[in-house]
Amino acid sequence: MGRMNVSLIGMPSSGKSSIGVILAKMMRFNFIDTDIIIQNNTKRTLQQIVDSKGYLKLRQIEEETILSLNPEHSIISTGGSVVYSKKAMEYLKNVSLVVYIKVSFEEIKKRLGDYSLRGLAKPKDQTIAEMYKERTALYERYADIIFENHFKNATIAAEKLKELIDENI
Ligand SMILES: Nc1ncnc2c1ncn2[C@@H]1O[C@H](COP(=O)(O)OP(=O)(O)O)[C@@H](O)[C@H]1O
Ligand SMILES: O=C(O)C1=C[C@@H](OP(=O)(O)O)[C@@H](O)[C@H](O)C1
Ligand SMILES: [Mg+2]
């Protein structure tokens, strides 16, 4: 790894954003949330992009955003759909340690609740169960390490993840 960065990948609501910002403070790293960059660049919410341009366009914007990051000393919280881009994932693997934040299907389903306004980059007719199955294979494919997040809250999870990262860098 050329520059020291950590990328967090995983299902929507697995904790990438909540854990990422806490981890960045604990490790004195920069914090990047690609969803926020996309919103700033497009001046649209993720839901608005999906509604007006479709979920494939959101995935394309996400890919372009990742490829333009050039991160240094950063924790990068990605959007859950980033693994659909081979290019983006190869880029992240080159510039960072890629951590898959793994959360059980039951917990993800519970956290997502009514996800109709969450701007998920998935076909309308794809169920959460189908999405979980399809994506799990991709998260596992690209992960350098897997972090099983069965912790009570994001702060505890960030402390545990820091230990795992320290062992792996
Ligand atoms: N152990 C945990 N780790 C991270 N988040 C947790 C945990 N337990 C509950 N949560 C809650 O789950 C949600 C995770 O959302 P978020 O961080 O936005 O995920 P993502 O960025 O992966 O979509 C937050 O509401 C957070 O408070
Ligand atoms: O998994 C997805 O399809 C998406 C997850 C979101 O980010 P989080 O994973 O941070 O919720 C955001 O990028 C967009 O709404 C699409
Ligand atoms: Mg997030």
From TrEMBL:
Could you state one GO cellular component term attached to this entry? Answer: cytosol
Q: Which InterPro entries does the protein's record reference?
A: P-loop_NTPase (IPR027417), Shikimate/glucono_kinase (IPR031322), Shikimate_kinase/TSH1 (IPR000623)
Q: In which pathway does it act?
A: Metabolic intermediate biosynthesis; chorismate biosynthesis; chorismate from D-erythrose 4-phosphate and phosphoenolpyruvate: step 5/7
The GO terms this record gives for MF are: ATP binding; magnesium ion binding; shikimate kinase activity
Which HAMAP family does the entry mention?
A: Shikimate_kinase (MF_00109)
Q: What CDD domains does this protein map onto?
A: SK
Residues annotated to bind Mg(2+): 17
Q: Which reaction does it catalyse?
A: shikimate + ATP = 3-phosphoshikimate + ADP + H(+)
The UniProt record lists the EC number as 2.7.1.71
Q: What is its main location?
A: cytoplasm
What is the designated name of this protein? Answer: Shikimate kinase
Enumerate the PANTHER family for this protein: SHIKIMATE KINASE, SHIKIMATE KINASE 1, CHLOROPLASTIC
Q: Where in the cell is it found?
A: Cytoplasm
Question: Per the UniProt entry, what are the Gene Ontology biological process annotations, in alphabetical order?
Answer: amino acid biosynthetic process; aromatic amino acid family biosynthetic process; chorismate biosynthetic process
What domain of life is recorded for the organism?
Bacteria
